[in-house]
């Protein structure tokens, strides 16, 4: 008798648990703030794990995808088509020389090529061939305060992101002007995107129109939607 | 645990067991939701069985269908899984729990108990595991270890490189993570079925003991009631 009653009670509580996990438990302020606290803890763990000397793996050219996947919350036909003639990259915050940059000036910077892997937070990955200027070179050239904590970005499609200074100065962090040896296509962020192989894909902003250096942690489009801020890989 | 029709679980084992049970539920529920965002195989898990919140509520709150919340659960749950797993394994190794209860394990005894199990002819002796059960426990312990290592390779493929090569690359690590998860789910199905068949094992895992009364007094009144009731 006792055993049967146990089973019945357990059956009900398991059912209740399934219901809870299925819809209620995540949509709750206390749970969300607990998860946010863990996310901040994971930011600190990832900052500690990050080393500016550890390079992301590079791959042979044969593994680089020619037709790189387009990814955004809107379709490729809605992607901004920035025109080289009137594009100006604006600089603000802790930067000595805030003179806006034209596409011509950007493309005249010294460039390197790297074949690295883009890893999406959802799990898919793709290897691409990227050519551009090490972001560090650019930051030094404009007299950015590299002792500041963060670099933030604002983009032509309303996107906004920010990264920690150690990642900004990492040797593989590029202002990528070319993908697969061709000038960056409009939908991939023309005139340039920030290519960071040590970060998840969504921390690689496209169509950047403003770069700022700051000590306040910049907000991020997907971070504001619940994703982890550091999102290193 | 001790033989002779009495099942005992040390307090540490019970705490580690239930924390792992909670962690595994969190990891599977949130993992299924994350899998759905970019499936490896041509199917998705039903949303009601996943952890990450109601899609419409989540869209209204965050502008995200709950994948962000699932990832937040997964990367919070991993700390609970890691710590409770370490507690369980270190205690099991140093207290002699693994040696006493999960060993010896020979191919011969395994074959004998496997055949008996197929014929539903296994003796249920509380407090003693048969060879198939012992193998099952070793497998799930190894499985959780592989989940932790492949999970680390997926979470930090750059910082832990070349760890992913152990699994044949980043996508290989995702595949291993998925397949071993499936094995753990299978273990849970068998484990819970056996608990349903022999519910006294659940009592022992909660209160620490189940079986005929010994000559020395029992620790508490609740235990005595259960002992008499069965």
Topology diagram in text:
The complex is a heterodimer of chains A (233) and B (230).
Chain A: H1 2-24, H2 29-49, E1 90-93, H3 103-107, E2 112-119, E3 125-134, H4 135-141, E4 150-155, E5 160-164, H5 165-168, E6 174-179, E7 182-183, E8 193-195, E9 208-214
Chain B: E1 7-8, H1 11-37, H2 55-62, H3 67-95, H4 97-102, H5 107-118, H6 131-155, H7 170-197, H8 200-207, E2 209-210, H9 221-229
Antiparallel strand pairs in B: 1-2
Helix pairs in contact in B: 1-3, 3-6, 6-7
Physical arrangement of strands within the biggest beta sheet of chain B: 1-2
Report on the biggest sheet of chain B: 2 strands, antiparallel
Query: How many H/I helical runs of chain B?
Result: 9
Class based on secondary structure composition and strand pairing of chain B: mainly alpha
Concise account of the structure shown:
Chain A is of the alpha+beta class and 233 residues long. Chain A is 26% helix and 22% strand. In chain A, strands 2, 3, 6, 7 and 8 form a five-stranded antiparallel sheet that branches. Chain A has a four-stranded mixed sheet with strand order 1-9-4-5.
What would your notes on this structure say?
The complex is a heterodimer of chains A (233) and B (230). In chain A, 26% of the residues lie in helices and 22% in strands. With 233 residues, chain A is of the alpha+beta class. Chain A folds into 2 domains: 1-49, no CATH class; 56-225, Oxidoreductase, molybdopterin-binding domain (Sulfite Oxidase, Chain A, domain 2), CATH 3.90.420. In chain A, a hairpin with a 2-residue loop joins strand 6 and strand 7. Chain B has a domain at 11-92. Chain B contains 9 helices and 2 strands. Chain B has helices at residues 11-37, 55-62, 67-95, 97-102, 107-118, 131-155, 170-197, 200-207, 221-229; strands at residues 7-8, 209-210. Chain B has a two-stranded antiparallel ribbon. Mean pLDDT of chain B is 88; it is low at 220-230.
């Amino acid at each position: 008798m006792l055993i049967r009653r146990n089973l019945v009670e357990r059956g009900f509580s398991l059912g209740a648990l399934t219901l809870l996990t299925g819809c209620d438990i995540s949509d709750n302020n206390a749970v969300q703030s607990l998860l946010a606290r863990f996310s901040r803890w994971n930011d600190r763990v990832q900052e500690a794990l990050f080393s500016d000397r550890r390079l992301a793996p590079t791959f042979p050219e044969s593994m680089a995808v020619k037709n790189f996947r387009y990814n955004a919350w809107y379709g490729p036909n809605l992607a901004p088509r920035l025109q080289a003639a009137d594009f100006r990259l604006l600089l603000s915050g802790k930067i000595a020389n805030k003179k806006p940059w034209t596409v011509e000036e950007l493309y005249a910077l010294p460039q390197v090529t790297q074949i690295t892997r883009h890893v999406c937070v959802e799990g898919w990955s793709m290897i691409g061939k990227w050519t551009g200027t090490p972001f560090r070179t650019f930051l030094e050239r404009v007299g950015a305060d590299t002792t500041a904590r963060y670099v933030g970005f604002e983009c032509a499609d309303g996107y906004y992101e920010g990264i920690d200074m150690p990642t900004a100065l990492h040797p593989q962090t590029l202002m990528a002007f070319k993908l697969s040896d061709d000038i960056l296509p409009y939908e991939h962020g023309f005139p340039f995107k920030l290519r960071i192989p040590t970060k998840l894909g969504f921390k690689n902003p496209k169509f950047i129109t403003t770069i700022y250096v700051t000590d306040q942690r910049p907000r991020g489009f997907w971070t504001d939607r619940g994703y982890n801020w550091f999102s290193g890989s | 645990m001790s033989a002779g029709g009495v099942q005992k679980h040390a307090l540490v084992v019970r705490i580690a067991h239930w924390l792992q049970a909670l962690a595994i539920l969190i990891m599977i529920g949130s993992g299924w939701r994350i899998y759905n965002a970019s499936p490896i195989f041509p199917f998705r898990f039903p949303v009601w069985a996943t952890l990450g919140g109601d899609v419409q509520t989540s869209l209204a709150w965050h502008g995200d269908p709950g994948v962000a919340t699932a990832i937040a659960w997964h990367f919070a749950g991993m700390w609970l899984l890691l710590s409770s797993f370490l507690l369980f394994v270190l205690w099991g190794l140093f207290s002699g729990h693994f040696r006493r209860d999960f060993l010896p394990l020979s191919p011969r005894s395994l074959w004998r108990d496997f055949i008996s199990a197929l014929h539903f002819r296994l003796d249920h002796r509380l407090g003693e595991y048969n060879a198939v059960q012992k193998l099952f426990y070793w497998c799930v312990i190894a499985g959780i270890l592989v989940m932790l290592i492949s999970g680390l390779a997926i979470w930090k493929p750059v910082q832990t490189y070349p760890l992913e090569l152990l699994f044949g690359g980043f996508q290989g690590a995702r595949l291993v993570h998925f397949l071993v998860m499936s094995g753990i789910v299978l273990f849970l199905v068998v484990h819970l079925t056996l608990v349903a068949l022999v519910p006294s094992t659940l009592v022992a895992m909660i209160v620490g003991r189940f079986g005929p009364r010994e000559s020395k007094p029992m620790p508490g009144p609740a235990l005595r009631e259960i002992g008499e009731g069965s």
